[in-house]
Amino acid sequence: METASTLTGGAGWAIIHPLGASQAGVFVTKTTEKPILCVGITPCLQRTLQFAQLELGDVNRARAVTVSAGGKACTMASVLQTLGEAPLVTGFLGGDTGQLVEAYLQARNIGCNFVATRQPTRVCSTILDETTGQVTELVEEAALPSPDDWCQFDGKLVALLVECGMVVISGALPPKAPDYIYANIAQKAVTLGVPLLIDSQKTPLMNTLPYQPLMIKLNRRELADTCQVAIESDDDMIRAARGLVARGAQWALVTQGPRTGWLVSAQELWRCQPPTIQAVNPIGAGDSTTAGVAYALRQGQSMPDATRFGLACGTADALTVVPGQVNRAEVQRLLPWVKLEKVG
Q1: Around Cβ 291, how many Cβ atoms within 10 Å?
Q2: 3-state secondary structure 194-232
């Protein structure tokens, strides 16, 4: 659902932003608690291009183009705002593209506290082939912030964490960025007693595990890359996830799109089955899952119940063209179809 109004920037981009939550008929009651801090070092300007039929090696004209704020943290913040939270997003933005990302978020009443950089914010593009249903993601690598930018970001962290009741660290780091960045954030969060969720992978994630994050979220490929093992079966997934729990994570949620996922703790094992749907755009569904888990935990739900709600959010996101534009009514419709079974 969209408005006819646009936000324009110096780069000539136009953002069509969704209707406010109250207009869309979704849940809009705001929490009175502290906001959830969404940390995303590498946000992007997200372009979603729809083609009736994509022909490789030929000229293709998009049937529709939508521009939005992208990257895991921005997608999560959009979902949290729709669900009734008051998220706060931080990271790095620069150039005309960065201005458009911030304008998009502000138009949705999402709090922003970014470090301004000289490097322009990256642009990522999702290509939707409506004939085959195939989705292709073109990812531009983020520029490495300068040492001064990192210092500014580090200086913000404590003040932002003090303001927030939960922090979600998400996404990849820019190439050549220090692997300890997320561990530094985790250490500050733990010191201040702020619950910590992490949606990332590889060494940056591994370095946070000594700080015992409440939950880590990975998909199957990310789990294999992080643990440097082949994941060929459910047993492989469970074994690898238990290894991450043994290193410090309180819970590990491993997803694999529409297929069975697993929620693992030191004492419990849950089989997680999302409902079967005809996905429109699966990009961002995992981010929406994490956002849903964070929201439900803040409402006092148990981790299994929060995971169930998160998977409903992720499924609802996959039914939309633009990542992060879930509808609360659709989440509630899908929720009974998400199956969680305790198997250990």
Answers
A1: 36
A2: CCEEEECCHHHHHCCHHHCCCEEEEEHHHHHHHHCCCCC
- Which CATH number is 32's domain given? 3.40.1190.20
- Per residue in 139-197, pLDDT (tens digit) is 999 999 999 999 999 999 999 999 999 999 999 999 999 999 999 999 999 999 999 99
- Residue 20 sits at the vertex; the CA angle it makes with 10 and 39, to the nearest 5 degrees, is 65
Confirm whether 282 is domain-assigned.
yes
265 token code pair: 């703790």
| Domain containing residue 49 | 25-342
Place of tokens 């593209």: 97
- List phi, psi (to 5°) of 191: -60, -35
The pTM of the full predicted model, rounded to 2 decimals, is: 0.88
- Pull the structure tokens for residue 120: 């322009």
How many structural domains is the chain composed of? 1
**Distances from the Cα of 132 to the Cαs of 21, 47, 136, 280, in angstroms?**
32, 20, 11, 11
Q: Establish if 14 belongs to a structural domain.
A: no
Beta strands 135-138; 123-129: pairing state: antiparallel
User: Could you write out the DSSP letters of every residue in 167-198?
Assistant: EEEESPPPTT--TTHHHHHHHHHHHHT--EEE
In what helix (H) or strand (E) does residue 317 lie, and over which residues does it extend? Answer: helix 303-318
Hey, what long-range contacts does 148-153 have (CB within 8 A, 24 or more apart)? 149/92, 149/115, 149/117, 150/181, 152/115, 153/90, 153/91, 153/92, 153/115
